[in-house]
């Protein structure tokens, strides 16, 4: 009999891809979110819920073997302007799910954190993830709930929207013929394609990743300037690119690694999506969406 994986935030960008990979791995999947998933497929069932409602959480995790939490507020700029909502969704919501997992005796709780926990940047978003990590560790100490904490880097790929950095760049290039970037272009990111991240997010259910903090980023650092040039080459030396040389606010300059939280082990995949091929696939999705709306 197939094991049941419950995925909070399963209607979203990363969560929906993880749901797909769980089905491919043989799991039954319960997609839990406030909105219906536009990506629901065979082997997935939809469960509408609110992570701030404890009773809703208990029903959502009923019968679950594994629980993933991708829910909450994930936009750094939005979180910076909404501290109370960020704390409610990212910290209290996480605690409600955790407590429901305790009652349901789930085998593993998988939490979507961020490499921002290593940084002084990220404002309330970073702080909410740091707090949630420590709460998860405390639940393990007090109640024995096994966990895997996944610290994601910069994701890109299909199903993204304007909250995603690479999506914004490509959207601006196609719609305006110009990309304006606030920084210098020397900022670095270890971009990872969302499908690669999703596959690794299922792989961590192996016993060796129980009660571990795992870093999930791409294999190579890319300067934003080099990424922009790659986009120009793909689009035939368009669009025009402008760097404003302004501070990036709450965003880090280089993918941070440090010793502030629990040390994390970087999980490396057997293969990764080529960056150029990944960008082409993103552009193909944008054209498909545009054609479907015309």
Automatic annotation (TrEMBL):
Residues 6-210 form the NAD-dependent epimerase/dehydratase domain. CDD domains: SDR_e. Gene3D superfamilies: NAD(P)-binding Rossmann-like Domain (3.40.50.720). Pfam families: Epimerase (PF01370). InterPro entries: Epimerase_deHydtase (IPR001509), Lipid_A_modif_metabolic_enz (IPR050177), NAD(P)-bd_dom_sf (IPR036291). Signal peptide: none annotated. This is NAD-dependent epimerase/dehydratase. It comes from Desulfovibrio ferrophilus. The lineage of its organism: Bacteria, Pseudomonadati, Thermodesulfobacteriota, Desulfovibrionia, Desulfovibrionales.
